[in-house]
C-alpha cells in the first residue's frame, strides 16, 4: 500500500473515523489499532519480526534499568568498603552491558541477515550462472516492512536507556505504538523516543481544524512532489540508465533528474506522512531542511535524511570519537599538533566507519561502500579544512553572503550529491565508465526526447522545480504551509486549486506511465 | 458570548472557504473537461446515450463490434413489434458485457437479452480503452464504479473515473479548443466519417471488401487451455443475472467469414464448452455460423474483414432473427461446420510472414537481428476438406493512369509442407506490394481460388 494510492487514502479516512470513535484519552489505542492493521494489510506474515523486536527491546530496557537500580540499592548498604563498592559498580555495569549487547546483536543481526541475504543470493546466482551455465533458483525472501527504520529506533531507545538519559516506557503497548506507528513505519523518520513517544502520550489527541487543514495541505504538497516531479523524472532516468550509447548531454540530464527524483520522492513521502500524522495531532520529526541550501557537505547531511544522520552521529560517530582506540590514535598523533594531519587523524576513522555503515544501511553492494567512503572523505576534509577555506575566501574578497556565491554553493552541493548518487547507482562499472567518458566527449542533447518523456513533461518538470525553488526561498524564513495559510483566502484557494489540478492532471498514475513505488521503501 | 460569536464567525468563514474551493474545483474540472475531452467521435457515446433516450426497450442485443455492425435493431423492432435495441460496443470482454447488460436491465424493462459470445474474448484480458468507452457513459454510478474497479488495474482507477486525465495528453492549441467547442455545441453531436454512419437503435453502418486472406498472426484465436477464468466467471454471472431478473437470455455467435472459421482450430471445442455452460442454466445457445443455407446465406463479399459482417446484409440477418424469435424450436441450424461445409471448396488462404537475416529467421521484423535480406510468405489454402493443391503467387503492379493491373513476377514456392507453400519475396517496408494468389488443384490444374488483388498490408511493426 503506497502513500499515493487510493487504498492508502481510504485507509487514512478509516483511521480518522476510528480515531474519533475513541475517547480523547484513549485515542492512542486507535492509532495502535490502525498501525497494526496497516502492517497486517501490507505484510501480515512479517509482523512477528516487529513484535519480536518490540518485545525484546522493551524487556531489555526494563531489565537494564532494574539491574542499575539493584546495583544502586546495593551501594547504599551501610559499611561497604571502597573495594566492595568498586566491585558492585563493575558487576552492575557488566550485567547492563551484556543485556544491551545481546539485545542489540540479536535485533541488528536480524536486520543484517535480511540486508545481506539479497547480496549473497545475487552472488550465488552469478556464480552458478558462470560455472553451471544457468543461475540456480534461490527462494526469494520477503523483507519485513520498515525493518531498517524500526530497528534503529528501537536500538537508539535501548542505548538511551543504557546511558540513563530517561526512564524506560512502562507500558508495552505504548512502546509498540512508538515503533509501529504507521506514518513513520515505511520510510521513517527514525524516531527518538523522547520526541515521538511523548507526542503519542499527549493527554488529549484531538482533531482540530488547524491540524486537519495543515495536514491536508502537506499531503497535497507531498503528492505534487512525488507524483508530478519524482515519478515523471524517474521515467526518464530509468530509460536512459538502461540504454547504452546515448550522448553525454542526455546522460548528464539523467544524472540531474536522478538527483531531483530522489529528493522529491523521499521528501514528498515525508510531506505526506507528516501531514497524515499532523491530522492526528502527532508531530513527526522533520527529515529534510532545504538540503540544497547547505553551506557545506557536513551541513548538507544535517539537512538531508536528518533522522538517519543524527542517529549515526549520536549512536556511532560520537561513541567512536570518545572510544579508547581513537583516543590512542589522537595521542599518537600529538606530535603533529597544529597541522592538518593532526586534525584529520582525530576524525578520519570515526568518520569513515560511520559513513561506510551509513552506506551499508542503504544497500550492500560495492557501490554503497564507495558512496560511504566518498562522503566520509569529503566530510573529513570539510571539517579539517573549513577554516583554511574561509581564510582563502576572505583574502580573495569573496562575498560569501552574496546571491551569486549562494547559487555557486548550491550548485556545488548539487554536483557533489549527484556524484554520490552516481557512485551508488546499480549501473555496472563498465557502463559507469562509458557514461563518464561520454559526458566529456559527446556533450550534445540529441535523443533527449526519445527517452520516455515529451516536451510537455520537461515543461512540467521545469515548472515543478521552479516552484520548489520558490518554496525553498520562502522556507528559509518560515514554514511554507504556515506562510501560505496567512495569505488572503482567494490566493489560498488559488494555490490549493493549482496544486490539486497539477497532481490530478499530471500525476503519474495510469496506463501511459509506470509509476515507481517510493524509493526509500526498500529499506 | 463574544467569544462564542467570534468562534461561530470563524467556522462560518472556514465553511465558506472549503465550499467555495470545492465548487471552484468542480467548475474548473467541468470546464476543462468540456474544452479538452474529445468524445465527439465516440460511437459508444451515441449508442449508450441513445439507449437511455429510448422511451422503452424490451429486447436488447449486447455484444462487440461484430454485433454493432450487423444486428439491424430498427428492422427487428418493425418485424417483431417489440422495442429492440443494439447495445454493443467495440472490443468489450465478458466483464464489460456483464456490466453493460446490468446497466441495460437497470435502466429499462428488459424481458429478452441476446448476448454475443465473442469466442476469442474468453482468452484475451480486456483492454483499457474498452472500459472507458462504456464506463464514461453509464448513468448509474454504482455500476460505473463497479465496472472500473473490476475491469481495471488499480493504477488505472484515476483514468477510469476521470476522463479529463486520459484526455490531457498534451497542452491543446487554441484552434483545437475552438474546434471542439463548436463540435460539442452542434445540435447533432453524431459521428460522420464517411463510411461509418449511425443507423439508429444502436446499429452502425460499415461496409467493405474482404479479400478472403487471413494473416494467421493477426487474428485473435485461442485454444481451450487459454480461456481466462475471470472471463468464464463473468460469462456465468451474465446467466445468473438474467436468471435472477427473469430475463429470457439467448447466447449467440455472430457470423464469421469461412476462412476465419477454418483456420480457428479450437473453434468448435470452445463453442461446445460454452454450449455446455448454457445448458446448465437452460439458456439457448445459437451459432449463427450454422444457419441453414435456405434461411440465411452469406457470400464471401458480405464481409468487411475476416470477422465482421457487412451491414448491408444486416436486414437479411434481422429477418432471420425475427423468424427465430417467433419460432425458436424449428430446425434452423446445422449440427456442425462439417455438416454445413461438405465439399472441398477453397474459401480463402491464410498466410504467415517471417524475416530472414544472416542471424536467422524471425517472426517479427522488429525483433530481427541483423539486416533483413528477404521475407518469407507461407501460404495455406483454407478448406474444410483435405485437398491437394498448388499455390501460385504473382506480384502485381497498378497503373494509376489507366487503372489497370499487370503481372510483374510469378514466384515459385521454395518449400512445400502439406498444402502450405513458402515463397521468398523482397523485403521493402517503404512500398506497398500487391499480389495475386491463385490456388490450383494438383494434377488437373483446376482453379480453386483466386484473389482479385491482394494488397498485403504492411503491419505496424514493418512500417
General description of the model:
The complex is a heterodimer of chains A (523) and B (463). Chain A is mostly helical and 523 residues long. Chain A contains 20 helices and no strands. The longest helix of chain A has 51 residues, at 82-132. Chain A is globular, with a radius of gyration of 25 Å. Residues 511-523 of chain A have low confidence and may be disordered. Chain B has helices spanning 2-36, 43-53, 65-68, 73-80, 94-107, 128-135, 141-151, 157-161, 163-167, 174-185, 229-245, 258-263, 267-280, 314-326, 337-340, and strands at 59-62, 84-86, 112-116, 197-200, 203-205, 213-215, 248-253, 285-287, 348-357, 360-362, 374-382, 389-399, 404-411, 415-417, 420-425, 434-441, 447-450, 454-455. In chain B, a hairpin with a 2-residue loop joins β14 and β15 (420-425). Classes of the chains: A mainly alpha (523), B alpha/beta (463). The A-B interface holds A 5-7, 209, 454, 456, 459, 489, 492-493, 496-497, 500-501, 504-507, 509-512, 515 and B 11, 13-14, 17, 20-21, 24-25, 28, 32, 128, 154-159, 162, 164-166, 168-171.
Amino acid at each position: 500500500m503506497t502513500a499515493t494510492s487510493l487504498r492508502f487514502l481510504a485507509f487514512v479516512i478509516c483511521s480518522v473515523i476510528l480515531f474519533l470513535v475513541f475517547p480523547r484519552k484513549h485515542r492512542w489505542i486507535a492509532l495502535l489499532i490502525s498501525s497494526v492493521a496497516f502492517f497486517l494489510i501490507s505484510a501480515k506474515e512479517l509482523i512477528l519480526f516487529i513484535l519480536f523486536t518490540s518485545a525484546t527491546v522493551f524487556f531489555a530496557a526494563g531489565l537494564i534499568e532494574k539491574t542499575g537500580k539493584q546495583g544502586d540499592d546495593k551501594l547504599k548498604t551501610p559499611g561497604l568498603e571502597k573495594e566492595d563498592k568498586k566491585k558492585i559498580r563493575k558487576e552492575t555495569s557488566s550485567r547492563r552491558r551484556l543485556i544491551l549487547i545481546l539485545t542489540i546483536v540479536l535485533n541488528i543481526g536480524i536486520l543484517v541477515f535480511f540486508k545481506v541475504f539479497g547480496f549473497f543470493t545475487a552472488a550465488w546466482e552469478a556464480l552458478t550462472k558462470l560455472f553451471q551455465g544457468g543461475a540456480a533458483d534461490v527462494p526469494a525472501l520477503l523483507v519485513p516492512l520498515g525493518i531498517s527504520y524500526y530497528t534503529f529506533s528501537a536500538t537508539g531507545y535501548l542505548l538511551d536507556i543504557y546511558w540513563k538519559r530517561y526512564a524506560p516506557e512502562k507500558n508495552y503497548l505504548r512502546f509498540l505504538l512508538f515503533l509501529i506507528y504507521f506514518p513513520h513505519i515505511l520510510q521513517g523518520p527514525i524516531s527518538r523516543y523522547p520526541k515521538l513517544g511523548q507526542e503519542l502520550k499527549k493527554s488529549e489527541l484531538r482533531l482540530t481544524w488547524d491540524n486537519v487543514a495543515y495536514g491536508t495541505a502537506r499531503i497535497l504538497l507531498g503528492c505534487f512532489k512525488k507524483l508530478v516531479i519524482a515519478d515523471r523524472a524517474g521515467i526518464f532516468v530509468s530509460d536512459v540508465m538502461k540504454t547504452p550509447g546515448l550522448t553525454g548531454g542526455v546522460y548528464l540530464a539523467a544524472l540531474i533528474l536522478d538527483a531531483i527524483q530522489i529528493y522529491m520522492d523521499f521528501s514528498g513521502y515525508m510531506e505526506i506522512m507528516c501531514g497524515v500524522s499532523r491530522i492526528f495531532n502527532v508531530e513527526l520529526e522533520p527529515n529534510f531542511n532545504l538540503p540544497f541550501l547547505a553551506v557545506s557537505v557536513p551541513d548538507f547531511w544535517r539537512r538531508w535524511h536528518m533522522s538517519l544522520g543524527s542517529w549515526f552521529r549520536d549512536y556511532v560517530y560520537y561513541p567512536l570519537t570518545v572510544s579508547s582506540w581513537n583516543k590512542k590514535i589522537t595521542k599518537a598523533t600529538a606530535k603533529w599538533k597544529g597541522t592538518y594531519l593532526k586534525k584529520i587523524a582525530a576524525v578520519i576513522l570515526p568518520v569513515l566507519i560511520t559513513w561506510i555503515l551509513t552506506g551499508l544501511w542503504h544497500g550492500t553492494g560495492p557501490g554503497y561502500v564507495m558512496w560511504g567512503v566518498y562522503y566520509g572523505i569529503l566530510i573529513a576534509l570539510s571539517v579539517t579544512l573549513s577554516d583554511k577555506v574561509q581564510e582563502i575566501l576572505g583574502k580573495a574578497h569573496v562575498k560569501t553572503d552574496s546571491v551569486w556565491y549562494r547559487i555557486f554553493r548550491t550548485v556545488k552541493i548539487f554536483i557533489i550529491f549527484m556524484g554520490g548518487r552516481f557512485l551508488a547507482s546499480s549501473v555496472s562499472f563498465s557502463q559507469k565508465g562509458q557514461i563518464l567518458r561520454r559526458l566529456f566527449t559527446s556533450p550534445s542533447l540529441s535523443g533527449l526526447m526519445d527517452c520516455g518523456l515529451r516536451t510537455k513533461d520537461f515543461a512540467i518538470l521545469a515548472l515543478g522545480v521552479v516552484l520548489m525553488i520558490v518554496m525553498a526561498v520562502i522556507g528559509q524564513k518560515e514554514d511554507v504551509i504556515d506562510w501560505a495559510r496567512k495569505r488572503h483566502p482567494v490566493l489560498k484557494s488559488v494555490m490549493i486549486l493549482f496544486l490539486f489540478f497539477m497532481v490530478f492532471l499530471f500525476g503519474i498514475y495510469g496506463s501511459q506511465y509506470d509509476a515507481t513505488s517510493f524509493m526509500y521503501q526498500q529499506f | 458570548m463574544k467569544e462564542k460569536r467570534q468562534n461561530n464567525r470563524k467556522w462560518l468563514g472556514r465553511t465558506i472557504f472549503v465550499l467555495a474551493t470545492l465548487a471552484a474545483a468542480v467548475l474548473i474540472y467541468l470546464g476543462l473537461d468540456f474544452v479538452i475531452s474529445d468524445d465527439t467521435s465516440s460511437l459508444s457515446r451515441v449508442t449508450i446515450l441513445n439507449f437511455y433516450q429510448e422511451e422503452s426497450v424490451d429486447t436488447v442485443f449486447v455484444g462487440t463490434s461484430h454485433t454493432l455492425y450487423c444486428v439491424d435493431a430498427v428492422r427487428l423492432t418493425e418485424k417483431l413489434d417489440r422495442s429492440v435495441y443494439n447495445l454493443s460496443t467495440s472490443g468489450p470482454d465478458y466483464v464489460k458485457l456483464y456490466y453493460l447488460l446490468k446497466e441495460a436491465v437497470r435502466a429499462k424493462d428488459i424481458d429478452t437479452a441476446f448476448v454475443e459470445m465473442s469466442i476469442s474474448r474468453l482468452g484475451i484480458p480486456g483492454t483499457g480503452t474498452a472500459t472507458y468507452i462504456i464506463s464514461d457513459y453509464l448513468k448509474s454510478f454504482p455500476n460505473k464504479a463497479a465496472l472500473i474497479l473490476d475491469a481495471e488495474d488499480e493504477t488505472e482507477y484515476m483514468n477510469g473515473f476521470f476522463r479529463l486525465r486520459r484526455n490531457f495528453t498534451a497542452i491543446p492549441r487554441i484552434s483545437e479548443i475552438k474546434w471542439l467547442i463548436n463540435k460539442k455545441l452542434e445540435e447533432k453531436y453524431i459521428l460522420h466519417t464517411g463510411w461509418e454512419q449511425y443507423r439508429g437503435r444502436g446499429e452502425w453502418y460499415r461496409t467493405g471488401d474482404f479479400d478472403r486472406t487471413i494473416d494467421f498472426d493477426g487474428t485473435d484465436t485461442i485454444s481451450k487451455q487459454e480461456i481466462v477464468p475471470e472471463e468464464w466467471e463473468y460469462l456465468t454471472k451474465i446467466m445468473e443475472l438474467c436468471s435472477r431478473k427473469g430475463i429470457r437470455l439467448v447466447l449467440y455467435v455472430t457470423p464469421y467469414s469461412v476462412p476465419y472459421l477454418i483456420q480457428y482450430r479450437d473453434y468448435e471445442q470452445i463453442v461446445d464448452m460454452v454450449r455446455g455452460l448454457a445448458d446448465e442454466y437452460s439458456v439457448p445457445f445459437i451459432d449463427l455460423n450454422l444457419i441453414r443455407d435456405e434461411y440465411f446465406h452469406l457470400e464471401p463479399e458480405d464481409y468487411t474483414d475476416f470477422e465482421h459482417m457487412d451491414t448491408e446484409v444486416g436486414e437479411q440477418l434481422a429477418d432471420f432473427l425475427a423468424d427465430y424469435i417467433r419460432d425458436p424450436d424449428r430446425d434452423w441450424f446445422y449440427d456442425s461446420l462439417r455438416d454445413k461445409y461438405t465439399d472441398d471448396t477453397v474459401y480463402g488462404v491464410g498466410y504467415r510472414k517471417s524475416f530472414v537475416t544472416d542471424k536467422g529467421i524471425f517472426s517479427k521484423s522488429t525483433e530481427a537481428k541483423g539486416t533483413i535480406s528477404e521475407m518469407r510468405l507461407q501460404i495455406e489454402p483454407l478448406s474444410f476438406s483435405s485437398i491437394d493443391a498448388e499455390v501460385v503467387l504473382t506480384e502485381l503492379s497498378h497503373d494509376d493512369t489507366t487503372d489497370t493491373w499487370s503481372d510483374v513476377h510469378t514466384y515459385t514456392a521454395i518449400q512445400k509442407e502439406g498444402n502450405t507453400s513458402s515463397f521468398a519475396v523482397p523485403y521493402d517496408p517503404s512500398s506497398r506490394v500487391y499480389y495475386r494468389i491463385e490456388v490450383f488443384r494438383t494434377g488437373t490444374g483446376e482453379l480453386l481460388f483466386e484473389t482479385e488483388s491482394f494488397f498485403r498490408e504492411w503491419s505496424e511493426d514493418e512500417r
